[in-house]
User: Which sequence fits this backbone?
């Protein structure tokens, strides 16, 4: 298996080196998942599950855009 190095040069990797890299990545992932902020479920429990219709009903209606007269619009461009 070929691997790209820091200078974009290819290096030959043995199967043992690939296994070591995979093992190190699995260990890093397991350590990150074991952190207390990954298992905190308080944030998800406080949000009630609402349907799309309920979400849309709770959203304020869109207002009309503020229209400027032609003279005011023309002064904004150089």
Assistant:
């Amino acid at each position: 298996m070929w691997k790209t190095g820091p200078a974009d040069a290819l290096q030959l990797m043995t199967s043992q080196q690939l296994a070591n890299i995979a093992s190190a990545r699995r260990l890093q992932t397991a350590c990150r998942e074991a952190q207390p902020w990954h298992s905190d479920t308080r944030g998800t429990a406080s949000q009630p599950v609402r349907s799309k219709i309920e979400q849309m009903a709770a959203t304020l209606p869109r207002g009309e855009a503020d229209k400027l007269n032609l003279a005011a619009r023309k002064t904004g461009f150089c």
